[in-house]
Design brief:
Elements: E1 9-11, E2 17-21, E3 27-29, E4 39-43, E5 48-49, E6 56-57, E7 62-66, E8 71-72, E9 78-80, E10 87-98, E11 105-114, E12 117-125, E13 133-144, E14 149-158, E15 164-166, E16 174-182
Antiparallel strand pairs: 1-2, 2-3, 4-7, 4-16, 5-15, 6-14, 8-9, 9-14, 10-13, 10-15, 10-16, 11-12, 11-14
């Protein structure tokens, strides 16, 4: 059994055009269809000194872009899902975690927090005392509702006791996210 659906215009539940067909097999996406918004990207403007063995929120204080004004770069350094924008989101962060003053990096981790609770972590443990820094990445697809918020935390253990998250020049740490599917 074969099923066929014929239409010239496909609309979402709110009546917005998603795509159109000219009847000859040519399909055109409508303006605004299939956008991955809200979307944002932020980076650190300078190195952030953090305490040894302490989970600390990364200070992504400079916006690169923010389509829906959903990333707060000035006070909370977090992305908050706007009203009406629930769905599945992709997040990515890169942090350069540094022992600070010498080759003393012992272990480090980078973590996504959702509404103040850990949801995903990436950790490295080193068996050597000759490592200065580690570039760590983390990504996740998260199902979010309106007003949910996402933050990035880092934890560094080093024998010098002066760890930093590098945030300037070629070693910029960053935090990016965008909606991939609406609710």
């Amino acid at each position: 059994m074969t099923s066929i659906i014929k239409c010239n215009t496909y609309k979402d539940t709110n009546g917005n055009d998603l795509f159109n067909s000219d009847g000859s097999g040519n399909v055109t996406l409508s303006a605004g269809a299939m956008k991955n918004t809200p979307a944002f990207s932020a980076r650190m403007s300078q190195a952030q000194t953090i305490s040894h063995e302490t989970n600390t929120k990364a200070d992504f204080d400079t916006e690169i872009f923010d389509t829906d004004s959903a990333y707060d770069h000035s006070t909370n350094q977090r992305f908050t899902v706007p009203t009406g924008k629930a769905g599945k989101y992709f997040f990515y962060s890169n942090l350069v975690l540094d022992a600070g003053s010498a080759a003393n990096l012992q272990n480090c981790q980078i973590t996504f927090y959702k509404n103040g609770s850990q949801v995903k972590k990436n950790a490295w443990n080193f068996n050597s005392n000759d490592i200065f820094f580690a570039g760590m990445q983390i990504s996740a697809v998260l199902d979010l509702s309106a007003s949910d918020y996402i933050e990035v935390y880092a934890k560094i253990s080093d024998s010098s006791g002066s760890p930093v998250i590098d945030g300037s020049g070629a070693t910029q740490s960053e935090f990016t996210g965008y909606r991939i599917i609406g609710a």
